[in-house]
Amino acid sequence: MNTEASVAQDDQATGALAGIRVLELGTLIAGPYCGRLLGDMGADVIKIEAPDRPDPLRDWGQGGQKLFWRVHARNKRCVSLDLRTDAGREILLELARTADIVVESFRPGTLERWGIGYDVLSEINPRLILVRVSGYGQTGPYSARPGYASVAEGISGLRHLNGFPGEAPPRIALSLGDSLGGMFAFQGALAALYARERTGRGQVVDAALSEASLAIQESTVPDYQKAGHVRQASGTRLDRVAPSNIYKSKDGLWVIIAANQDTLWMRLAAAMGRPELGTDPRYADHNARGDRQDELDEMIAEWAGQYTADDLVAILNEHQVVNGPVNTVAEVMVDPQFNARGMFVDHDDPSLRPGDDGYDPEPVTGVGVIPKLSDTAGGVRFGGASRPGTHTDEVLEEVLGYDTETLVRLRDAGTIA
Prior knowledge:
The protein is of the alpha/beta class. 36% of the residues lie in helices and 12% in strands. A six-stranded parallel sheet has the order 3-2-1-4-5-6, sandwiched between helices. Strands 7-8-9 form a three-stranded antiparallel sheet, covered by helices on one side. Residues 1-11 have low confidence and may be disordered. Keywords: Transferase.
């Protein structure tokens, strides 16, 4: 914690990062997702938006409901501050003196053009950690390019691995590259906090969406470097990892069955009423099953199709075979395991009151906080504020000691909103 000025945002601040102050700059998903993860673990996250250009994520959602923002901006206090003005930059630097981490997701060079690069930030606060999230990183021939998740997934080779052989590589219906970039940025922020305990100094964390998408690709690089093997899309299964696929039940539902270890294969063979297959040399080890992957899939599909999904899952569980349904979000939300673990939590909007436009008495439900810590658990203290600048006065009064006269002057000048 930056002991010079960091304070808990309220008396109920909890979590492993309680007392850590974060300034979040930037918009949309990757950088703000890092900020969300820090806030989930108890950090006081102050999100700074331009008065005339708030985060576009505020308008994202389905059916006219702008709910993407509500769960992505949870645990963040929203401040409207124009960083393109001298006064706005001075306020940011004042806030940076009190902060532990700044998270930014602008195109590389933007902070430097505004005169608030890490050279300036670290001079006023040597303990400050700057987390930079971008498409390609802060250096290299592509660094100045704008970067989105879809392109990061493509250039990293991740998109090539998705879909079915010979077909156009689809994307998952999520901004996966953004989420991966945000998660690696969060990991870097935690590592830098730990290093600061030893060195007493902050540093720059440089997280790229393209590199995050590359980093999760298991052994694809050494497979190519040593064996010349280019992993291809493999549809609903992994090539030569067998049996592990989805199989349709009698009632038309898909069930995942994963028995690609020797012991699991023997259990599945017993569940199918054919225990002799478990020790049959044609299927007894990993390579043998990989050689006969299509044959195994046909065999298991024929067996699975005799049972309803519920009966199939019951048989597999009885024999301790790894299995599970392919759920929609509607099914996920009633799943007893997720509910027993508290994975659905309410997100109240602190900026709206009865009578306000957009007020909804029913709270928004979102996904809970993971991982779960036994002693310093994080949580959702409040959902994202629907109104930009909800906490501007609160933050500037509490953190910087501004009085009403100063706030009025800054608001009249358009520096804050």
